[in-house]
Amino acid sequence: MHMKSLATMAAALLLSAAPLAATAEELIVYHGWSSKAEVAALNILQAALNEKGHTWKDLAIPHNSGVNVSIVNMVTGGDPPNAFVTSDPHIFRDLAGLGLERDLTDYYKEIGAADNFFPIVQELSTVDGKMVKVPLFLHIDGMVYWNMDVAKKAGVDPTAWKSVDDMIADFPKVKAAGFVPAAVGGQAFQVGYLFHAMVAALAGPDIYDRIYSETPDPTAFDTPEVRKAIEVVRAFSNEATPESENRPWNETTNTVIAGQALFHIMGDWMKGEWLAAGKVPGVDFGCEVIPGALAVPVTSDAMGILGGQPAEKDKAELDLVAAFVDPIVSAKANQQKGSTSPRADAPTEFRDACNQVAMDAMNKPNGAVKNPFNVITGDWNNGIWTAMYNFWSDKNQTTDDAVAALKDAYDLTFN
Amino acid sequence: MSTGLLSGDARVEAAPRFPRKRKGISGRSIAILVFLSICAAFFCVPLYVIVTTSFKTMEQIREGAIFSLPSPITFEAWVNAWDHACSGIRCEGLKVGFWNSVAILFPSLMLSLTLSSITGYALALWKVRWAGTFLFILFICAFVPFQIIMIPLIILSSGLKVYGTIWGIAIIHAVLSMPFLTLVFRNYYKGIPQEIMSAAMMDSGSFWRVFGEIIVPMSGNIFIVVLILQVTSIWNDFLLGLTFGGLGTQPMSVVLANVVITTTGEAAYNENMAAALLTAIPPLVIYFILGKFFVQGITAGAIKG
């Protein structure tokens, strides 16, 4: 009797212990984030993963462009990470072809996350009808961050701008006060981002989606709205100072922080520079979407999860997903990174003034479009960047020249 | 010996054709000085910016005057770069990468030096069948860019179960440097007089004994040349370390890139500059210590042809 009860107890213990022991897994988390704000956000995610009983094995690669290359290498080497940061749909398709894709559509429904993502996030997280991405951090690609002190000294009020034309009309006034109106960095990437932000703002989602598409429609470049966007890019290039040539976005933002320029249009990741300089949103600097914007382009920094794993690993990976998209964890992590939570139901106390602007923009029906990197191939993207950067650098090029160059880029890429 | 050569070859009447000016600064020497100063500035100005920036505070850097001297001078960026900079979630600074690089350096050096010196010795001093063909193939291999064979190498190293380990990186370094280094060793050993080899053959005739007891002691200079070349290339390598490094074996260059390169994060320029300088120090130290031998080794090879 005694022996028997002991045996049952042992068996019961074993049974209860077995699932516990089995669930503690080490997950390799692969990403390209090493700056202070990014690491602070990762620490929150790591803590959330640890709470689920799993450990985080970190693998960081420099820059997000390197991330895409190395993930391919690691899959080839037979040593892929469990969670990897990438937004490129082509990577997910490649993984699907290898049987390493993990479709999260049903799981998101199960944990009640699916409907709580912003609509644009749901779109951005879906590849070929399956939700395969874990959205982590949201950024708006083209926001206006201005130095409040400079605005006061120059006597302009950026909140009063109702359109891009209003904004440009204030340039002479700012210049007269001795400031650079628009800080710009002469790099293909910055010009490319300004262009797609302006296309979204001035031409709206329909025309934007005709250009930034897997199968683009080159006639979109002939529309008056896109021509207007090109003209705005010219207006900004006219403000380019000699030292802006090849100036990284960080340094460009810093000219605004240092009070030499009024504003910078860049992704709202520039908030990190402001915060690092000890500035407070809504006090030292203001933030708005591009005035009168019809739509804002949204970048969703997202992860993929490795499919084709043994049941226990798979369970652990799903725990990671649940931990990362949890509304509170997500809100806290995004607060650290300076981005906006992909969850519309994220608690409000972790937001600042700039998050509020971003969330309002994303809540606007049909007011958000996908960042090009989430949709188009690298070739098409480079084609657009090169055409626009040449236009930026050569003041003799007219709007017609730019339209022709964009069409040439289309022909080169697709024909 | 060299004077004998000169008097034999050069004719006396050659001298008046290039009359030497006694002294003074001519226009030509001014031009040369200016040219050399520009060349020196070309390298020194960026170095000046890097060094001064590393001692500045971020507040001063934000003002945007890159040529200004640091005021106040702070060593914080250096301490941060070595001890606290983040590479991913680990914020333990560059020292992690430094030790990884050291751990990669030694096996890579050993493997590549051993492999290429023995191959060079065999090709130069022994009658190897197809030696010419083999040398030709090696020579061709020296021109194959690594990027082309990267994916096959990943598959190979994964098959050998060394992908993502220090030995994986070491083997790849040894294999990729083999064509060039073998040619260097082979050319050096070709200059060893046949009499020495003949005597050695009579005494022992063993491939390994001749190599270990006669050839290696004679090749100090060339070993140092190759050592310097390899230390520099292994230390500065980024792509191999990134591709084959994997978890926890990322070399200093990759950690440096993690610290410095940012996609959407804020940039701490003072820390980045300090980090870059820290990473550049080890090969410089090797050059300073072994530089004399380096020149000796190169000229030794040159005379023997």
UniProtKB/TrEMBL annotation, chain A:
The keyword Transport applies. Keywords: Periplasm, Signal, Transport. InterPro entries: Bact_solute-bd_prot1, SBP. It is found in: Periplasm. GO terms for cellular component: periplasmic space. The keyword Signal applies. Pfam families: SBP_bac_1. Residues 1-24 form the signal peptide. Belongs to the bacterial solute-binding protein 1 family. This is Sugar ABC transporter substrate-binding protein. It comes from Devosia insulae DS-56. The lineage of its organism: Bacteria, Pseudomonadati, Pseudomonadota, Alphaproteobacteria, Hyphomicrobiales.
